[in-house]
Fold this protein.
Amino acid sequence: MLFTESAEGVRIFSRFHQRNSCYQPGFSHLETDNEPLSTLIESVPMQTTNTVLMIRPTRFSFNQDTAANNRFQRPATVAEDVQLKALAEFDGYVAALRRHGVEVLVHNDREAPHTPDSIFPNNWWSSHPDGTLVLYPMQGHNRRLERDKGVLDGLLGEYRVEQLLDLSSLEEHEVFLEGTGSMVLDRQQRICYAGYSTRTHAQALDQLVTHLGYELCAFNAVDRQGVAIYHTNVMMSVGTRLAVACLASLPHSGERTALRERLETSGKQVIALNWEQLESFAGNMLEVHSAAGEPLLVMSRTAWQSLDANQRRLIEAHTTPLPVNIDTIERIGGGSARCMLAEVFLPRQGGSACLATIGGLDR
């Protein structure tokens, strides 16, 4: 295992035999300890995955630490049992995914330390078909604690990590990039879509796309009050052939036109959302696929109910829609269906796929 540090102080851990010390996106000149990297990449669907990781909540609650810039959060009523409701919604969500042939790895959250938003794991890590695992700098202090609750221990027992790109040290400089909340990735075309906000900074974005070899399509997106939208994945989603986006949230006409054109030239049919649909989390969708390869578009029932008939027909022409009831989680947590899914794109370790429970991850 090689341990290197970039000029920006970003830690890079590599299991590759390198002919030079410089990290190169694509790794075309590198050889792995096991099988060729090209085999690893080709064996994993580029845009969607069949495997997701979810965190089963133990102390879900309103997070005061993130409420200042997440305008979707709403405090609970005094008598409301938020944890009980969230747990029922979570279990129903997992069951719905599994019924449709999606592999769901469930990590049972620990009670301590208290991390009220741990149900949204996609913000602090992402994985990639070449074996890269990325850790992200988080703005919320209690959200940083999620990295130390054993979530990745079980994952690393079953999946291969060839590169660990750790951006979390950027927190020391108040520079943030909250994973696939801050970014929406077109993995096929290697495009990173990102709306700048207090949680999505240019410096971190530049480092991420440089290391992963992505094109950056960045813009400013605001809510109807003119306040920056905290996460890009609230206002847009990119699938294999379909994209949804609240283009109205981009106040600059040039950026609005550029975003639509980039989506269309990359082969996506665009569904434009209005303000009401944005506020109903219709931008917070994620395309996955079943074990049989069937495309599924996962969203909350609130999001699905906000769409008009033409939008629903277009979705059904490309995918099978999968709406789930997460009303409490949306209202209290300020995140929706996509936020609860951490996609697993890592190549598997040999011979471990048959295990039912590995390192605390339940199927």
Observations:
- The chain has one domain: 2-362.
- The chain has eleven helices and 19 strands.
